[in-house]
Amino acid sequence: MNAADHLLPPLTGLDRERYSRQMLFAPIGEEGQAKLLQARIAIVGMGALGTVLANHMARAGIGFIRIIDRDFVERSNLQRQMLYDEEDAASSSPKAEAGAARLRAANSGIIIEPVVADLNATNAEELLTDVDLILDGTDNFAVRFLINDVSVKHGIPWIYGGAVSSRGVSLTIVPGETPCLRCLFGQPPGQGTAETCDTAGVLGPLIHVVASHQATEALKLLVGARAALTPKMMHWDIWYNQHAGIDVSQARKADCPCCGQLSFDYLEASVEEDTIQSLCGRNSVQVQPSRPQRLSLADWEARLAPLGRIERNPFLLKLHLDDKGMTLVLFPDGRLIVQGTDDPVAAKSLYSRYIGM
Ligand SMILES: [Zn+2]
Fold first, then answer.
1. CB 149 within 8 A of CB 264
2. How far, in Å, from the CA of 178 to the mean position of ligand 1?
3. Model pTM?
4. How many other CB atoms are there within 10 angstroms of residue 224's CB atom?
5. What is the pLDDT of residues 113-135, one digit of tens each?
6. How far is the CA of 254 from the centre of ligand 1 (A)?
7. Among the listed residues 110, 100, 74, the one whose alpha carbon sits nearest the alpha carbon of residue 89
8. Long-range CB contact pairs, 228-233, < 8 A, 24+
9. 210 exposed, middle or buried (CB, 10 Å; 0-12, 13-18, 19+)?
10. Is the CB of residue 228 less than 8 Å from the CB of residue 218?
């Protein structure tokens, strides 16, 4: 025990009861539990991996959990995204808000902070640098390379996780000690070259294998049990019964652009332009304005009502353009998802025409 540990607030009687089975595990104990209750983490993405991660972290008593997700719940999520139900899908609840409600119901003694936003170079440092650990629940490599930049620049560990089809991967990255994502992968695979859950599917149980491994590594890091961390990149194929750990402890590269040369290309990417991104396999395109807006969805409902059927909840507005076979989903920060097209040009033109910022 070092000097700082004596400053940890004592556990309450309710804490002792709630976390008793976790505290009986000797490597965590009462001291570890007190550390968990003081810990702050961010989870990027509240899809399949994110919901399992958040569930584990909230129940384990991590004191502050920020959950970041840009999407709303859809029926096709329910097979594996464990915090959501049919009502969330019917009401198009944002995943961060719906997830926060479930997590608060499971543990009212911790702070859950939902953020409905697309993590990008403009907001990544604001959202990810006041925490002790970042957990990856995303489904795309561009965001992972951005997380990796924040992690190395600010010395904050992160835990990569991925799951597609029946195959999963997990890797714990501690800046200055382990290789970073760029040491191992160089750069993200090109757009459309990687399999995704939307094109190759995914088995629900696989999510729990990967996220539970990430969550266990997170507990080790947060109680300070660095020696217990795995030095391996873990791989699983749960359908074809394969399981491997590749030792990457010697894979740190002195000339790595990120952790070797401290060049944070993804964080410093130019974000002057509006970002238009085809959401792979979902027949949807997202338009993210270069500067966040503050829209009144009620005003926008009045403005767009003549154009088609409108649905609105506190977090988003949907305009159904039935004649075009498209739906526009508008968020208060000015972000628009155009459902019913893969064509970025068509999406941008709809954005200019109807939203026009
Ligand atoms: Zn590196």
1. yes
2. 8
3. 0.84
4. 13
5. 999 998 989 999 999 999 999 99
6. 8
7. 74
8. 228/27, 229/172, 229/174, 230/172, 231/178, 233/169, 233/170, 233/171, 233/184
9. buried
10. no
d(CA 93, ligand 1 centre) in Å: 37
Is the Cβ–Cβ distance between 167 and 191 less than 8 Å? no
Cβ-proximal residues to 247 (8 Å cutoff; 6+ apart), any chain = 231, 232
Specify the residue for token string 């620049």: 153
Type of residue found at 258: C
Q: How close is the Cα of 187 to the center of ligand 1, in Å? A: 11
Cα 85 to middle of ligand 1, angstroms: 40
Residue pLDDT, tens place only, 249-282: 999 999 999 999 999 999 997 555 567 777 767 7
* Ligand 1 centroid, distance to 179 Cα (angstroms): 5
Separation between Cα atoms, residue 118 and residue 140, nearest integer Å:
12
In angstroms, what is the span from residue 266 Cα to ligand 1's centroid?
13
337, 307 Cβ separation under 8 angstroms: no
Give dist(CA 217, CA 234) in Å, integer: 12
Distance 224 CA to ligand 1 centre (A): 23
